[in-house]
């Protein structure tokens, strides 16, 4: 029997009171595919709750490469890292991968509401802290383990977010090109092609007829990067 990874959205991680607050002060906005909702370095006056669609969250590295940080879906919150900061700038960019709808939440409106409720403020800041830990762990994997370690870490994270346990191994049940994988590692497509080919030769991974990756030896990937077995709440691609 197949066993699929359970993806937990941001809205499932917060209280009903905080959910209701976000929805009550949000206004609906449509976003066309292949357009930026916000870009790194831009003035940050809003955060967003995704209603429908798909967004790629990324950051530019010091050498100008694009590093994908997250793939966000319905009920995820994006643009959240600027709350309670003066002259805030977006730390990341959000590109729509499909026609989408979001609730636009004015930063100053949310801050004004939270100031009146210490418990909700604490909850929201604790939730932001979890996202910062996720981002830091991804950047750490790249810095410490290099491009190969970043790829192995990315594969592990995808198994936690989109993995389906099959008889052959863990199917990563999402379509990704090697170029898209490369952006999660701040690497070139050519280097990712080479590393994936090496993993196939070692029988660590295989591929389905439609190009999805099956991880056959997850422990090999973990051993190669000295995996600390972080909780799935941190080690994921969402």
From the structure above, extract its key features:
single chain, 238 residues, alpha+beta, Jelly Rolls, Arc Repressor Mutant, subunit A, 2 domains, 5-stranded antiparallel sheet, 13 strands, 38% helix
Summarize this entry quickly.
With 238 residues, the chain is an alpha+beta fold. Helices cover 38% and strands 24% of the residues.
The structural class is: alpha+beta
Total E-strand runs: 13
Q: Specify the biggest β-sheet.
A: 5 strands, antiparallel
The number of distinct helices, counting runs of at least 4 residues, comes to 6
* Percent of residues in helices: 25-40%
Q: Give the full name of the CATH homologous superfamily of the largest domain.
A: Jelly Rolls
The helix-strand sequence is: EHEEEEEEEEHHEEHHEEH
Query: What's the architecture of the largest domain, going by CATH?
Result: Sandwich
CATH class of the largest domain equals Mainly Beta
The third-level CATH topology of the largest domain is Jelly Rolls
Distance between the termini: 25 Å
């Amino acid at each position: 029997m197949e066993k699929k990874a359970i993806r937990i959205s941001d809205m499932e991680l917060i209280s009903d009171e905080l959910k209701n607050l976000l929805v009550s002060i949000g206004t609906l906005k449509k976003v066309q595919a292949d357009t930026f909702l916000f870009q790194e370095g831009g003035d940050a006056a809003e955060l967003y709750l995704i209603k429908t669609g798909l967004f790629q969250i990324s950051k530019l590295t010091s050498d100008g490469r694009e590093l994908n940080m997250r793939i966000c879906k319905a009920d995820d919150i994006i643009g959240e890292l600027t709350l309670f900061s003066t002259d805030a700038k977006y730390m990341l960019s959000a590109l729509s991968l499909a026609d989408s709808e979001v609730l636009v939440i004015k930063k100053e409106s949310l801050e004004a509401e939270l100031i009146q409720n210490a418990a909700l403020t604490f909850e929201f800041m604790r939730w932001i802290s979890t996202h910062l830990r996720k981002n830091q762990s991804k950047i750490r994997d790249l810095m410490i383990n290099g491009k190969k370690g970043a790829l192995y870490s990315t594969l592990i994270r995808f198994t936690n977010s989109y993995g389906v346990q099959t008889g052959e191994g863990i199917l990563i049940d999402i379509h990704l090109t090697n170029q898209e994988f490369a952006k999660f590692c701040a690497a070139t497509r050519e280097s990712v092609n080479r590393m994936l080919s090496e993993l196939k030769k070692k029988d660590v991974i295989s591929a389905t007829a439609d190009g999805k990756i099956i991880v056959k030896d997850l422990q090999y990937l973990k051993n190669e990067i000295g995996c600390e077995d972080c909780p799935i709440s941190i080690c994921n691609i969402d």
